[in-house]
């Protein structure tokens, strides 16, 4: 396993899924890179470093990347977790969708599903938690570091005191350009366009002698630091450069669930999962059922759409609805055995993906909490 830090050396551009062409009113909106973009960039970096062509990889596979698989789901394939935003090497996670705040304050207000009384009949126990229950509430838009997300997972909501927002890590910039004629290498008349780029913040705080940097962290399970022989790489639109640093951590980012949390879940027969990365589900916002449990509540942010490009087939990937990171799903435990639940919790806590599509590509990474 290796931790890969990507430090953009200039602006980066990752276009959204909407059609775009140069010309009158040509404007391409962009945002942070999706797990699929990062997965492709890391795979391309590895193949380039090893001198392996895409065609050779498709035909013969690779000991570390596994066999070629359009679905990015084979058990022998490269698996990643991320991307995660970082500042000075510290990863930050999106605010959970069930955390809100009173307007004008930063005090978190937690929304939880209302469970029916045991004597009540309820044919549809699932309750959406899509908005605040009070006009004075607004979404909690802070990022949470490791300590703060751990407080959230253990139910210590009032102790959460975040300090960073996404605007503290990157800003957006509009860049204009002109389409180039491939045959002549010159600009094409009338083919102007504007694209929305992202610039990661790099500055020296007052009184400090060390530069503070925002970066991207990706965890790759099959690769090693020795596989990263090039100090830089290119990714995204216009092939912008990034500095690449790979290290092998002494311990996992999230170790196994503490025993007291597992015991609380077993005792109270309920838990939740938090999406640390976006996910793609066949049923839109809803993940596949978990054995021995019942989904009783969900807090899900506004979805977006994602596609991609199959280089070897020279065609786009299908357009899929993406559940954003930060979504929270609440479960009650039915009559499953303690051993079954122990295994389920282990699989869900920063381990196996719950995404129905592209599970190896960083989608559907979850953390487990007690409520």
Ends apart, CA distance between termini: 31 Å
User: Shape from CA axes?
Assistant: globular
Strand content: 25-35%
Mind telling me the CATH class of the largest domain?
Mainly Beta
Percent range for helical residues? 10-25%
Number of domains: 2
Oligomerization: single chain
**Can you count the beta strands?**
23
Biggest sheet record: 8 strands, mixed
Q: Determine the mean pLDDT.
A: 86
Give helix and strand order, one letter per element, not per position: EEHHEEEEEEHEEEEEEHEEEEEEEHEE
Radius of gyration using CA atoms only = 22 Å
Low-confidence stretches: 121-125
Question: Judging by the overall fold, what is the CATH architecture of the largest domain?
Answer: Sandwich
* Structural class designation: alpha+beta
How would you describe the overall organization of this protein?
The longest helix has 16 residues, at 35-50. This protein starts with a strand and ends with a strand. The model is unreliable at 121-125 (pLDDT under 50). Strand 3 (80-87) and strand 4 form a beta hairpin. It is globular. It is of the alpha+beta class and 371 residues long. Strands 1, 3, 4, 11, 12, 13, 14 and 22 form an eight-stranded mixed beta sheet that branches. A five-stranded mixed beta sheet has the order 7-16-21-15-23. A three-stranded mixed beta sheet has the order 2-10-9, with no helix packed on it. It has two domains: 2-90 and 167-247, no CATH class; 96-146 and 153-164 and 253-369, Sandwich (Immunoglobulin-like). The chain is built from five helices and 23 strands.
């Amino acid at each position: 396993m290796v931790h890969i830090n990507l430090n953009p050396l200039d602006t980066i551009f990752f276009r959204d899924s909407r059609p775009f062409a140069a010309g009158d009113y040509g404007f391409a909106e962009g945002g942070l890179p999706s797990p699929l973009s990062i997965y492709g960039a890391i795979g391309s970096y590895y193949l380039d470093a090893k001198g392996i062509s895409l065609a050779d990889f498709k035909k013969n596979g690779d000991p570390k990347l596994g066999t070629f698989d359009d679905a990015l789901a084979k058990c022998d394939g490269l698996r990643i977790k991320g991307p995660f935003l970082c500042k000075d090497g510290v990863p930050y996670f999106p605010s959970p969708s069930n955390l809100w705040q009173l307007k004008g304050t930063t005090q978190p207000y937690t929304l939880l599903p209302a469970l029916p009384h045991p004597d009540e009949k309820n044919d549809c126990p699932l309750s959406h938690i899509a908005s605040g229950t009070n006009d004075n509430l607004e979404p909690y838009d802070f990022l949470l570091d490791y300590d703060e997300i751990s407080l959230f997972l253990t139910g210590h909501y009032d102790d959460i005191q975040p300090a960073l927002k996404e605007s503290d890590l990157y800003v957006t910039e509009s860049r204009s350009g002109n389409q180039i004629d491939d045959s002549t290498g010159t600009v094409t008349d009338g083919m102007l366009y504007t694209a929305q780029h992202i610039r990661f913040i790099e500055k020296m705080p007052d009184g400090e002698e060390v530069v503070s940097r925002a970066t991207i962290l990706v965890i790759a399970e099959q690769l090693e630091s020795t596989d990263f022989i090039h100090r830089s790489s290119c990714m995204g639109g216009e092939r912008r450069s990034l500095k690449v640093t790979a290290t092998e951590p002494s311990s996992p980012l999230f170790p196994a669930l503490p025993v007291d949390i597992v015991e609380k879940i077993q005792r109270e027969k309920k838990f939740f999962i938090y999406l640390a990365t976006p996910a793609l589900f066949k049923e839109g916002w809803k993940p596949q059922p978990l054995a021995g449990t019942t989904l009783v509540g969900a807090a899900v942010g506004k979805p977006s759409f994602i596609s991609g490009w199959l280089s070897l087939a020279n065609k786009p990937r299908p357009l899929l609805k993406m559940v954003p990171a930060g979504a929270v799903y609440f479960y009650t435990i039915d009559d499953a055995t303690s051993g079954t639940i122990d295994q389920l919790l282990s699989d869900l806590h920063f381990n196996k993906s719950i995404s129905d599509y592209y599970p190896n590509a960083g989608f559907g990474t979850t953390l487990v909490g007690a409520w």
